[in-house]
Amino acid sequence: MTVSPPETAQDDAIIRITDLNKWYGDFHALRGINLTVQQGERIVIAGPSGSGKSTLIRCINRLEAHESGQIVVDGIELTSDVKNIGKVRSEIGMCFQHFNLFPHMTILENCILAPMSVRSITRNEAEETAMHFLTKVRIADQAGKFPGQLSGGQQQRVAIARSLCMKPRVMLFDEPTSALDPEMIKEVLDTMTALAEGGMTMLCVTHEMGFARQVADRVIFMDQGEVIEENTPEAFFDTPRQDRTKLFLSQIFGH
Q1: Rounded to two decimals, what is the model's pTM?
Q2: Among 60, 148, 156, 173, which residue is least crowded by beta carbons within 10 Å?
Q3: What is the spatial distance between Cα 120 and Cα 116, in angstroms, rounded to a whole number?
Q4: Which of 43, 40, 5, 3 is nearest to 205 (CA)?
């Protein structure tokens, strides 16, 4: 089943996915995905476990290779061309369920490593940028500590700041709160909300439906590797069109 994206002006498209298919052996993980993301758009991808949500966003920066179809990010098509993969990854920030910080480096060192090696900027400039974004996520006072000295919520905020230090054009979030204790979830969601309000293009796989309703321009619902439904948050939550979407929402909200 293919759902056509809403009719919008295409001039500002920063991500364009056309008839995307992905297999793991005989398992068809992504089935004919079509998706266009505009500059500055905030998209939440929802759906049951195993529906292909994480696989989709991992394909967008080639952490997973797709077998057929096309992914174009900021005018660059993602293929097996290593040079193009490097270009795309330098423009995309990604935060995972697990923070993937280097445990032997301080928070500041974690944040300056990629800008210095990929962008070839000076240490002073990298540190200035890092402190700017650590301040933005309200954790600058922890810059000299090591990841193991921070709570899970603090580490995830550092991971977000580290991605921002590359000054990406797009941020991808793969269930960034799922590994956190409940009391830490809000601080990470607040950070992401502030980022969205600043105009960052975002694709976020999450089960946090309150965040989806508050922040998203569009909610995309996936099941069994397909996009089943996509709409504004109001329409998605209040008047879902597909029976599968209605079932999913009833299981979440209990009605």
Answers
A1: 0.89
A2: 148
A3: 5
A4: 43
